[in-house]
Automatic annotation (TrEMBL):
<feature type="binding site">
    <location>
        <position position="21"/>
    </location>
    <ligand>
        <name>ATP</name>
    </ligand>
</feature>
<feature type="binding site">
    <location>
        <position position="158"/>
    </location>
    <ligand>
        <name>substrate</name>
    </ligand>
</feature>
<comment type="similarity">
    <text>Belongs to the glutamate 5-kinase family.</text>
</comment>
<dbReference type="GO" id="GO:0005524">
    <property type="term" value="F:ATP binding"/>
</dbReference>
<dbReference type="InterPro" id="IPR041739">
    <property type="entry name" value="G5K_ProB"/>
</dbReference>
<feature type="binding site">
    <location>
        <position position="61"/>
    </location>
    <ligand>
        <name>substrate</name>
    </ligand>
</feature>
<dbReference type="InterPro" id="IPR005715">
    <property type="entry name" value="Glu_5kinase/COase_Synthase"/>
</dbReference>
<dbReference type="GO" id="GO:0003723">
    <property type="term" value="F:RNA binding"/>
</dbReference>
<keyword id="KW-0808">Transferase</keyword>
<dbReference type="InterPro" id="IPR001048">
    <property type="entry name" value="Asp/Glu/Uridylate_kinase"/>
</dbReference>
<feature type="binding site">
    <location>
        <begin position="221"/>
        <end position="227"/>
    </location>
    <ligand>
        <name>ATP</name>
    </ligand>
</feature>
<dbReference type="InterPro" id="IPR015947">
    <property type="entry name" value="PUA-like_sf"/>
</dbReference>
<dbReference type="InterPro" id="IPR001057">
    <property type="entry name" value="Glu/AcGlu_kinase"/>
</dbReference>
<comment type="function">
    <text>Catalyzes the transfer of a phosphate group to glutamate to form L-glutamate 5-phosphate.</text>
</comment>
<dbReference type="Pfam" id="PF00696">
    <property type="entry name" value="AA_kinase"/>
</dbReference>
<dbReference type="InterPro" id="IPR036393">
    <property type="entry name" value="AceGlu_kinase-like_sf"/>
</dbReference>
<dbReference type="InterPro" id="IPR019797">
    <property type="entry name" value="Glutamate_5-kinase_CS"/>
</dbReference>
Length: 382
């Protein structure tokens, strides 16, 4: 029998906010619903991280498996989309209940589709909700909205969803818990003689994808390839990914001690640089906000967000979530572009709140998307 070498222990880099993705294979109990066996250790890692002043968002699979358990159905390949959607609807409450039993603080269910994250306005709403939940001390448990997400449910890919959520909440790290020790040169289950552990990946090349296999369990629908895709997506956002075996209690305990025994996928650049690059290259909408000299100076010199008090005018017909240009009015009456950013308010709204204090926004508009017209995190200077 061929013995596969173990993964080396390596120190985790410092992080403040992370997304933890947990696959169905760690939660499902062979057709009997959900099991707390492996979830408990992962929850203890989350609790230890929060106790150390960090924030964690959980992206959890398992709703379909929970639904099967309620109906006492075994996992079957080729199950119809409508059936899987119904099972997800049945199992979703049990999935959230499983996580809530491990934490004294509240757990919040957040259901997303990839469409929610491709649409800029829904993207901003989802990000604002997740950030507020973290600020309130809750633990968001995110899952794909399987009951309506037909195309994505066919893929069953929460790995990529976790990477998208990591970018959404500006996470420093993406932890992917699976039922395999890490990334190997070959599938250790089918080709152990060719499987060598890969402790660290600097950049994902086609050769690495060629090494990836398919799904390793009957209940999971994602395989190693989707985990590589997620790591690549996270790397593009400046986020490192850590792949580890969530079924090994000792491995999970080491994570809480700042030690990884698995595979580390490095980011090509730091998170801030990646986000600024993205902001610089998103297509502009036909509109802009003109600011006064004081606001322009605060943006350039103090790294401030744009408040309504510094707005002079709004040009064009942009909407909330659009990428627009910011310009400053000069002494000769002309304007000069100084920045670009994602606006929290539409052109119609900005015209009404221009020059006013942030505390007056709700009184004027009847609603409030926040104190900033453009948040500093969504703005890049030209």
């Amino acid at each position: 029998m061929h013995v596969i070498p173990p993964f080396e222990e390596q120190p985790l880099p410092a992080w403040k906010r992370a997304v933890l993705k947990v696959g169905s294979s760690l939660l499902a109990d062979a057709g009997r619903g959900l099991s707390p066996r492996h979830a408990l250790g992962l929850a203890q890692f989350v609790s230890a991280s929060i106790g150390a002043g960090r924030e964690v968002v959980i992206v959890s699979s398992g709703a379909v498996a929970a639904g099967r358990g309620i109906l006492q159905r075994k996992a079957e390949s080729g199950a119809g989309i409508a059936e899987r959607q119904a099972l997800a609807a049945l199992g979703q409450a049990q999935l959230v209940g499983l996580w809530q039993r491990f934490f004294e603080r509240p757990v919040a269910q957040v259901l997303l589709t990839h469409d929610d994250l491709r649409n800029r306005r829904r993207y901003l709403n989802a990000r604002a909700t997740l950030r507020e939940l973290l600020a309130l001390g809750a633990i968001p448990v995110v899952n794909e909205n399987d009951t309506v997400s037909v195309d994505e449910l066919k893929l069953g890919d929460n790995d990529n969803l976790a990477a998208i959520v990591a970018a959404l909440v500006d996470a420093d790290a993406l932890f992917i818990a699976t039922d395999i020790d890490g990334f190997y040169t070959a599938n250790p289950r089918t080709s152990p003689e060719n499987a060598q552990p890969i402790n660290e990946v600097e950049a994902l090349t086609p050769e690495f994808y060629a090494m990836a296999g398919g799904s390793g369990s009957a209940v999971g629908t994602g395989g190693m390839r989707t985990k590589l895709e997620a790591a690549a997506r996270a790397a593009a956002a400046g986020i490192e990914t850590f792949l580890f075996n969530g079924t090994r209690a000792a491995t999970v305990q080491k994570l809480a001690q700042g030690v990884l025994q698995g595979t580390r996928f490095r980011a090509a650049q730091n998170r801030l640089a990646a986000r600024k690059y993205w902001l610089r290259n998103v297509p502009l909408e036909a509109g802009r906000i003109v600011v006064d000299a004081g606001a322009a100076a605060a943006l350039a010199e103090k790294g401030a967000s744009l408040l309504p008090g510094g707005v002079v005018a709004a040009e064009g017909d942009f909407r909330r979530g659009d990428m627009i240009e910011l310009a400053v009015r000069q002494d000769d009456g002309t304007t000069r572009a100084i920045a670009r950013g994602i606006t929290q308010y539409s052109a119609v709204d900005v015209r009404q709140i221009a020059g006013r204090h942030s505390r007056d926004i709700e009184t004027i508009l009847g609603y409030n998307y926040g104190d900033n017209v453009i948040h500093r995190d969504d703005l890049v200077l030209l």
